[in-house]
Amino acid sequence: MTKNLSKIAKTKKIKYFLISFVDLFGVLRSKLVPAQAIGEMQKNGAGFAGFATWLDMTPADSDMFAIPDPNSLIQLPWKKEIGWLASDLWMNGQTVKASPRVMLKKQINKLDKKNLIMKSGVECEYFLISEDGKTIADSRDIQSKPCYDQSALMRRYELIKEICDCMIELGWAPYQNDHEDANGQFEMNWDYEDSLVTADRHVFFKFMVKSLAEKHGLRATFMPKPFENLTGNGCHAHISLWNGKVNKFLDNGDRFGLSRLAYNFLGGIMNLAQPLAAFFNPTINSYRRINAPPTKSGASWSPSSISYTGNNRTHMIRIPDPGRFELRLMDGSSNPYLLQAGVIAAGLHGINNKIDPGEPLTCNMYTDYKNYPNLKKLPDEIDDALEYMEESKEIKEAFGEDVINSYIKLKKSEIENFNKDEDFNKRNPITNWEKNNTLDC
Ligand SMILES: [Mg+2]
C-alpha cells in the first residue's frame, strides 16, 4: 500500500516537505511544501517550469509535475520538521523520458526482466574550502602526502561526526570516514543498496554535506578538480548484480571471485566507457581529473586508459574483493541517477552481447601506460565525450535517441556559453567559469 504522506507528517511532526528532483545536469531543484498541502501534492505533484531548469524544454511548454516517491522520504536529522522527497517528473500525463530518475528506472526495469537487481555503493569525495573557493579551509593542511592524516581529520571532527551521526540515524550503515589524498579532501562511506536507493541517498548526501558544512562556517565542494595540483574528487562506484539474496557476480572458483556474468557486465562498461564519460564525467572541469598529470601527492588516482585489473588502483576498473568490482571513472559532478543508469545500460549491453573483457592487466598503469599503446583512451575533454555519445548506437538504443539528443543539445549549449569567454586547456589554470558553474555541483 502506498504510504500516506499526510499521515506520516502528523506522526513524525513534519511541518514542511522538500519535493525535489534532479535535472539533467545534476542540479537539485525543490519546492518547499507545507504539510497541509502534501496530500494533494502526493497525488498530482508539485508544478515546475521545465525550461527554467536543465531539461530540454521551451518556455511555451506546459508545466511539469514532480510526483514524490514516498519510499524516498528522509526526515532531515538536523532539522526534523522538514521531510525530503525524491520525485519523478510528469508532463501531460506521461513521465518525462529525458529526466534522470525516470531514465534510471527504465534501466532498472530492463534488469528486472532478467530477474536481476543492481546493488551499488558510491564513494563521494569532497573538499572543505573557503567561502570564495580559492583555498582549502584548513590552512594547516599542507603536507604533500595528506591521505589519512589523523590531525587534519580530527580538526574537522565536529562536522564529520555530525554528518556520520545523521547517516547512522537514517539507517544507512556508515562504516568509515577519512581524510583523502588531497589537502582539504574527505570521504565518508556508507553501505551499498539497490541502485535507486543509492542514487536517492547520493543526491541527499551531497545536499546534507553542503548544508552541514555551511552550518559549520565551511563550504563543501564535489567539483571534479577544484585545485590544479591536487587529487580531484572521484565518485567511485562498487557494483554487483543480485537475484534475491544471491550475488550473481560471485564465483569462488575464479581467480578474482567473479562470475562470467560479472565479466560480461564489466566488458560492457569497458566497451561503452568512451561515450558514457559524457554521463560519468559530465562537466568541462571533469577532464582536468581524468588523463591528469601526477598531483602533489604523487598520483592522480584517476584513470586515463580503459583497462581492468585485480586489487590495483591505477586502472579504470578494480576488483578489490570477490563478488563485486569498482568503477573508478566517475567524478563528483556526475549525476547520481545517470551514474547508476549508465552502469546498468553498459552492463546490460555486455551481458546481452556476452562481451569478453579480455585478460586483466597487472601493471602500474600510471607509469607503464606507454607499454600499452593499443588500449582505448578516455576522452580528453567534454566535447570528445559528447561526440562518442553522439556516435554510440548502443547508448541511443539503451536510453532512446530523443533522450540522448536532448542531453547532448543541453551540454553543447553549455560549452558554447563557456567558449564565449574561455578556452579549455588543462595545462592552464582553472577558469572562473569552471569555478562559478562547478563548485556547487
Ligand atoms: Mg577515495
Characterize the structure shown.
This protein is an alpha+beta fold and 441 residues long. The chain contains 14 helices and 17 strands. The strands form two sheets. Strands 8, 9, 10, 11, 12, 13, 14, 15, 16 and 17 form a ten-stranded mixed β-sheet that branches. Strands 1, 2, 3, 4, 5, 6 and 7 form a seven-stranded mixed β-sheet that branches. Helix 11 packs antiparallel against helix 13 and helix 12 crosses helix 13. It binds magnesium ion (MG). Magnesium ion binds next to strand 8.
Précis, in short:
By secondary structure, the protein is α+β, with helices and mostly antiparallel strands.
User: Overall mean pLDDT score?
Assistant: 97
Number of domains: 2
CATH architecture of the largest domain: 2-Layer Sandwich
Percentage of residues in strands: 15-25%
Write out the CATH superfamily name of the largest domain: Glutamine synthetase/guanido kinase, catalytic domain
Alpha-beta content class:
alpha+beta
Q: N-to-C terminal Cα separation, in Å?
A: 36 Å
CATH class of the largest domain: Alpha Beta
Biggest sheet record: 10 strands, mixed
Radius of gyration: 21 Å
Bin the helical content: 25-40%
Shape: globular
Bound molecule types = magnesium ion
Number of helices: 14
CATH topology of the largest domain: Creatine Kinase, Chain A, domain 2
**What is the total tally of β strands?**
17
**Uncertain regions: pLDDT < 50 for 5+ in a row?**
none
